[in-house]
Design brief:
heterodimer, A: 302 residues, mainly alpha, 12 helices, globular, B: 648 residues
């Protein structure tokens, strides 16, 4: 019975609440800059309008140009459904689900980059190349964080891994995962979600030629991915699963809000790093996760 | 009994196909099919029942009586051989047809049958001498298949390199089998784990079989051989022949005692092959050479599984050892299927456009929709992405290693970096296959050849479809194949009988199917939605640039540029730059080429030193008799001094 109610609830959280996050980030940025800014629900309006619009497709593009965003969206949603949501739990929990989650995100990356290369545009090729290259370092950092959590909980299942709070390495893990969140969701200092037309763009430049419903799928998928990484970060750091349900839900929501505001603040207060520095920054994130891993490992041995 | 009858039928049919190969192409294809079906059935029977088939005969070959044996490990490889063997044979009917290759088509069929027969014998022989004979014959068949198109200089060079490297490995195997026989007193092979004094021989086997498997840095022959062979030959070389090296390593690490360090070394070599193989692949701009380097990568992934299983066996930890080995062995199948599929796809591209150079291709999806979609399926599978088979085997290997991390003991130290590097390998492979698919099949054609391409015919398409179906089947229902993997694992380590299937494998099967269904449904939904609101075609927007040309597209080199820069320390790319000069520059050029570093920077300089030394020694021989008499006197005097001083 519980699962019958919980599954639609989870689905609703991921589908309906995800577009809220970019709105909050934009509100924070506007507030810091002293502007009024777009409404928090702006992305909802955009999605609704895009969904009704027609599409213009490049003459070079194959059907994969439409299928790419669709499969990427499905993959991100599937990954999100594997992630426990505080007291709501995960839809499905099994040994090794964390590996499936990582590879579903990789599938989404493959499809997005594929769709970008469909148009034969040098801009989009550039974006796709950067996306898949920097993802190598981000993947190393994420898998190190996963190893840390696995060592702490002696488990390979997300619902068990995310229950205990990270030990003394919490801060390192949080900073490392936050950096990966910024990189994977194309936020400053890696990428600037406000502009499309710069040579140093990564993700935004990959979707230059999308329009109408496929662009809506891309934007909604990106919002879900941001929520996914925030939820993962909060649950990796806070012992949400150990709290009573109401407090757990509160902690999760508050944590996600803090992460979102932090993203907005970073975006307001920092400039994008020079392009050559991006690998360096990601390597730093990886090293932070490695130190968290070492602490978890030695702490476990002692 | 059934197994024996099936294998006899297969042997008879393959012998018939040898006879039919020169004159009757249709008959040949039928007999190859007739030989692979019973051998597939025999392998399936052994894998499902878990038994071992043994046959000893009084018939003497080379002074030794025949001893054949089919157990879980060899049946696993035999099944792969049968599937790829028949798919490649059907493909060659159209790809290497009589009209285009009047001389070599018949030779190709003949050597193909011989190759299948010899690889089958390698898998079946349980006598060291016969194993060596079959091994040598199999290597020679490979040579003749690689050099089918011997008119071209680079083909002959690739064949020569293959032959030399292969024989270096065989030399080590000669030493291995002779020492084994000298210590056991018999050529007979079988489980002999209790004889600890045989352990050091494992290193010889690792080298000898490692050359064939193409693990880094023994892979020097592999890229040029796989790139220059006809594509159906590349498919079986990469899909099955290099797996014979893996078979040797798995077989003899299971039968013989292994030194304590062996598992660690195998796992380390595996990790190194995986990462460096894919790094070299990223640097390539020749489609088939790139796929060849991916074989090095995937052999690495297989060896990670095997290596961790050996470590687990040494530490007596059955559960995760069995997971890692099952993952590695499933990857043998998976790689055999998707790599053959990719090579056959590359062959279709080569057949249609006449070039393997990725910078001359592009936009092929329009002319070759079948090839493009099947190649894309293979690309998703080899990148280890769900819902296809590559993910399942990597998932099993990961699961084994995560369990190793969570066990108390020394295994953590190795498992942690191995997991990280396996994840990095996955991300790099993804980058590489996005590059290949994008540059070859998407965008605008970069040359007239690519513009006027045509899709492949029914035979080539059919054989690719068979392999693709295998990828999908293992991806959707890995639980069905667990019994087979379990029996192979038990054949490797007899005590690991009570290891259950990971309970989450069933869940994974269902999830993979659900994911595939959801992806298809999502794509269909978005397709319909996009057509409802109004569908217009226009030129690529490209930020409003008015006159884009095909030459402005991102190329393979520029796509991989960021990553190859990270690996420049080992790739050592050669760059030729011609900068634009003056106010109105005439021309500018930029070329980048990634050499086979191990061959060109290590092996060839060493070879040059040997040649230089021997050239110096040759100067002693000049035909002047009085000088020769002087050599004799000096030699005698030296001997006399030696005996006088140290001789008493």
């Amino acid at each position: 019975m519980n699962s019958i109610i919980a599954f639609p609830a989870r689905l609703a959280v991921w589908l309906l609440l995800a577009p809220l996050l970019p709105g909050i980030i934009n509100k924070v940025k506007a507030w810091v800059a002293g502007r009024r800014g777009p409404p928090v629900l702006q992305l909802y309006y955009d999605l609704a309008r895009l969904w009704r619009k027609g599409v213009v497709v490049s003459t070079l593009a194959s059907p994969g140009f439409i299928a790419g965003p669709a499969v990427a969206w499905v993959a991100v949603l599937a990954a999100a459904l594997l992630l426990p949501l505080g007291p709501l739990g995960a839809s499905l929990s099994f040994r090794g689900d964390v590996i499936l989650l990582l590879y579903l995100l990789a599938l989404a990356r493959f499809c997005t980059a594929w769709a970008a290369l469909e148009t034969g545009s040098a801009f989009e090729g550039m974006g796709a190349a950067r996306e898949v290259s920097f993802a190598v370092l981000a993947e190393a950092a994420v898998v190190t964080a996963v190893l840390t959590l696995s060592l702490q909980s002696r488990s390979v299942s997300l619902s068990a891994m995310l229950v205990p709070a990270a030990g003394s390495g919490t801060l390192l893990l949080a900073v490392g995962l936050f950096t990966v969140l910024l990189a994977e969701n194309c936020r400053v200092p890696f990428d600037d979600p406000n502009t499309h037309l710069e040579l140093t763009m990564i993700h935004e430049v990959m979707v230059l030629d999308h329009s109408g419903p496929p662009l809506a799928a891309v934007l909604h998928g990106a919002a879900m991915k941001l929520l996914l990484f925030s939820v993962l970060l909060v649950q990796a750091v806070l012992p949400v699963g150990k709290l009573p349900p109401a407090a757990g839900a509160g902690a999760l929501v508050a944590g996600v809000l803090v992460v979102t505001v932090a993203v907005g603040l970073v975006e307001s207060l920092m400039a994008r790093v020079a392009f050559r520095r991006v690998p360096l920054l990601l390597t730093t994130a990886f090293l932070l996760c490695v130190f968290a891993l070492l602490i978890a490992w030695k702490g476990g041995a002692a | 009994m059934i197994t024996g009858a099936l294998l006899a039928a297969a042997a008879g049919a393959i012998a018939l196909s040898l006879m039919a190969s020169l004159r009757a192409p249709r008959c040949w294809l039928a007999t190859v099919l007739a030989s692979t079906l019973p051998s597939l059935a025999a392998a399936a029977w052994v894998l499902v029942s878990g038994g071992t088939w043994e046959w000893r005969s009084a018939l003497l070959v080379g002074g030794e009586s025949m001893h054949l044996r089919l157990d879980g490990v060899s049946a696993l490889f035999l099944a792969l051989l049968a599937v790829v063997g028949v798919a490649g044979a059907a493909y060659s009917r159209e790809y290497w047809e009589e009209r285009a290759h009047p001389v070599s088509a018949a030779a190709g069929r003949c050597w193909w049958s011989a190759l299948l027969l010899c690889m089958g014998l390698v898998l079946l022989c349980a006598n060291g001498l016969h194993f060596l004979i079959a091994w040598e014959l199999f290597a020679l068949c490979g040579y003749f298949l690689i050099t089918l198109d011997g008119q071209r200089r680079e083909v002959r060079a690739a064949g020569w390199l293959y032959l030399v490297a292969s024989h270096t490995g065989t030399l080590a195997l000669f030493a291995f089998f002779s020492l084994l026989t000298a210590r056991t007193g018999s050529w007979d092979l079988g489980p002999m784990r209790e004889r600890a004094e045989l352990a050091p021989l494992f290193w010889l086997a690792l080298f000898g079989f490692g050359v064939k498997a193409g693990l880094f840095p023994l892979h020097i022959w592999l890229p040029s051989a796989h790139a220059n062979a006809p594509s159906h030959v590349s498919a079986i070389l990469s899909g099955v022949a290099i797996k014979m090296g893996i078979y040797g390593i798995v077989r003899f690490s299971g039968w013989l005692p292994a030194p304590p360090a062996a598992g660690w070394v195998v796992a380390t070599v595996g990790v190194g092959s995986a990462v460096l193989g894919v790094a070299f692949a990223l640097g390539q701009h020749d489609l088939k050479r790139l796929l060849a380097y991916h074989s090095v990568e995937n052999i690495g992934i297989i060896l990670i599984g095997v290596g961790f299983a050996m470590v687990a066996a040494a530490h007596g930890q059955a559960v995760w050892g069995a997971l890692a080995l099952a993952g590695g062995l499933l990857h043998v199948w998976n790689h055999g299927l998707f790599k053959s599929l990719l090579f056959l796809g590359a062959g279709s591209v080569l057949h249609a456009t006449g070039t393997r150079e990725m910078s001359r291709l592009g936009g092929l999806w329009r002319a070759m929709p079948w090839t493009a979609s099947l190649f894309a399926l293979g690309a998703v599978a080899i990148s280890g992405l769900p819902p296809l088979n590559g993910f399942v085997s990597e998932w099993l290997v990961y699961l084994g290693m995560f369990d190793a991390v969570n066990q108390p003991g020394a295994t953590v130290v190795a498992a942690i970096p191995a997991i990280m590097l396996l994840a990095v390998t996955g991300a790099l492979a993804l980058a590489c296959f996005v590059k290949v698919c994008g540059v070859v099949f998407l965008g605008a054609p970069r040359s007239p050849a690519a513009e006027h391409a045509h899709d492949c015919g029914p035979w080539m398409r059919g054989s690719m479809l068979v392999l693709a179906a295998g990828c999908v089947a293992i991806g959707f229902a890995p639980i069905i194949f667990w019994t087979a993997l379990h029996h192979a694992v038990v054949a490797w380590q007899g005590t690991w009988t009570d290891v259950p299937a990971p309970e989450s494998l069933m869940t994974l099967s269902l999830l993979q199917m659900a994911l595939a269904a959801a992806a298809l449904a999502g794509a269909a939904w978005l397709w319909r939605r996009a057509h409802r609101g109004g569908w217009a075609r226009a030129g690529t927007w490209d930020c409003g640039y008015a006159a884009p040309t095909a030459r402005m597209q991102y190329t393979a080199g520029s796509f991989a540029g960021i990553i190859t820069e990270w690996f420049a320390w080992i790739l050592r790319p050669e760059r030729h730059e011609h900068r634009p000069e003056e106010t109105l520059p005439q021309r500018a050029a930029w070329q980048e080429h990634t050499p086979e570093t191990v061959l060109e920077r290590i092996i060839q300089p060493c070879a040059r030193v040997v040649i230089w030394v021997s050239a110096g020694a040759r100067r002693l021989q000049h035909g002047r008799t009085h000088a020769y008499i002087l050599y004799l006197i000096v030699g005698l005097a030296a001997l006399a001094i030696l005996t006088l001083v140290w001789g008493r």
